[in-house]
Amino acid sequence: MINIDLKSKLYFVLVPTILLTFLLALIFDKNLGDISSWLFVVPKVIAIEALAFWLFQTFLWKWKIFRKWLVLYPNLGGTWIGEIQSDYLDPKTDRQIKPIPCMSVVVHRFNQIKFKIKTIESESISFSEQLIFEKTSNTKRITYSYVNDPNLLLDYRSNSHKGTTILNLVGDDKMEGYYFTSRGKKGTITLTRFSKKKMEELPVELTKHPMKNK
């Protein structure tokens, strides 16, 4: 999972390392022509850079100052709302059902992302997630596999299954793409950022479902 562009930004690591080495040698009055001075300075450089890297991957990567030129993806963490359009046919009408309102709670760390998508009838939890950046087309894509667990009272028409979702990030506040499942079904999904907070309950407007009471 990649969320940083270091291939063309090696100077972001090399330049601070060189400057820090000479700065510490100056502060502690060490002659870098002497091997003992290197043995004194290098451990301190490593310790400082390890702390800086921890701060970066824990907090600083979310800052806008690092966006576009270093960090590839914005912080996607929070609550997203949208709809799922399935190719499932209503057995009573033999027609494609209407879109299903959904909510997605996203946990996003520097190089890790998790999705939990809820509808009034089921919950999907992701595994094997990946952030993909296609530089030539400037496309930011998120793919993940998931396990869907429906309400047990609905097992007569909806059973537990696995699937894969592929989403394209549109700007910073919209994701859209498609999914397919182990049940042979497929469809599209659209999500829009709703809140930076992680909600547990579905908003009232999302408690509708085209197959409710069927």
Give an account of the 3D structure.
With 214 residues, the protein is of the alpha+beta class. It has 2 domains: 11-66, no CATH class; 78-206, T3SS negative regulator GrlR (Lipocalin, Beta Barrel). Helix content is 19%, strand content 39%. The protein is built from 2 helices and 10 strands. It has an 8-stranded antiparallel beta barrel with strand order 1-4-5-6-7-8-9-10. A two-stranded antiparallel sheet has the order 2-3. Helix 1 (11-27) crosses helix 2. The longest helix has 24 residues, at 35-58. The chain is elongated and about 85 Å long. 17% of the residues are buried. The model has no long low-confidence stretch (mean pLDDT 89).
Short description:
The chain has helices at 11-27, 35-58; strands spanning 78-86, 89-90, 95-96, 100-109, 112-118, 122-134, 139-150, 161-170, 174-181, 186-195. It is built from two helices and ten strands, in the order ααββββββββββ. It is α+β, with helices and mostly antiparallel strands and 214 residues long.
Average pLDDT, all residues: 89
- Oligomerization state: single chain
Q: How many structural domains can be distinguished in the coordinates?
A: 2
CATH architecture of the largest domain: Beta Barrel
* Proportion in helices: 10-25%
Number of E-type strands: 10
CATH topology-level fold name of the largest domain: Lipocalin
Estimate the global geometry from the Cα principal axes. Answer: elongated
* Individual helix count: 2
Distance between the termini: 41 Å
Radius of gyration: 24 Å
